[in-house]
Give the backbone structure.
Amino acid sequence: MIQQNEVINLLYGGIERDCPLYLAGDIGGTKTLLGLYSLKGTELTLVKERHFPSRDWQDLIRLIQGFLEEISVPPEEISGGCLSLAGPITQDKCLLTNLNRVIHFQTLHSAFALRKPLLFINDLEAMGQGLMLLKDDDLLCLNPSAKNPASALSKPSLNRALIAPGTGLGQAMILADHRVYATEGAHSDYAPRTEQEVRLWRFLSQQYDHVSYERILSGPGLADIYRFLHWESHPPSHHDPIPAPAEITKRALAGICPLCTETLKLFVKVLGAEAGNLALRTLAYGGVYLGGGIPPKILPMLQENFFLEAFLSKGRFRDLLSQIPIYVILNERTALLGAARLAAAAGYPPTCSQK
């Protein structure tokens, strides 16, 4: 006969019964990740994980219930949890901006009787928390020369900044004392820098009441840039179908579609410019980090000189920006890790690390 502690070990993949378990979720505009983590000492270990297309579910409670049933872990066995949400967090709810769904916190609290109540944070705050658990091979530096700190970088504690293009665009700052602050800076006014970008702004302003950086630096933004360039280069009667953002990226990197290549190049220039803006706004001497779903998929284009040139082109502050390292986050679980980190912290300063 299997004893109770043996059953728990089997269900939890060998995790000791006395290890606290934590539920983590990363609910984005394109994909949803749910994970169960264990905490032994100060080390977080991923036990189980599932991916779901975000548009395939309508009820987050049912989704989480199904996940816990699938892995045979009842809510009362879970010490706490944290959900990372792609939208602004208010006192009692969150609007998932690019899914147009509202998550009501009290409903989720009532549905899941964890040992400690669920926490809810913005996805960029979760990414910032997860950043502190990453290893060297989770990051790729785009300007290694900046890693040799000048005098301005010799301070013991440094601000960092996050910019994350994906289904939408997220921005956050990580202060020198490691506090993470999510912002809605992605919805600030887009500032064109060239004649071509001015024309892009005019094109988009005819369709949207407000042209923000998110309108350009996102998956839908890639499609809009393609439509703009197609409109400029083809007669009005010429109507080719607009490729999906992933297809635009694929064709651009393969070098089989000049219009796709020009689309991605313009996207990367605007991304570089706004990353430089964010670096100045936060004095991110500790680095600017490119997160989200898009940057890891377009590494060859980000490594071209025009990204860095757009980042640096800030007049008198070019030398200052040249001291700031720029990293691409390669670990797609970064926000999930951050949610697990906060769940394990349970309202106290988190000290756990990733195993």
Q: What stands out?
A: The first helix runs from residue 4 to 11. The two ends are 33 Å apart (CA to CA).
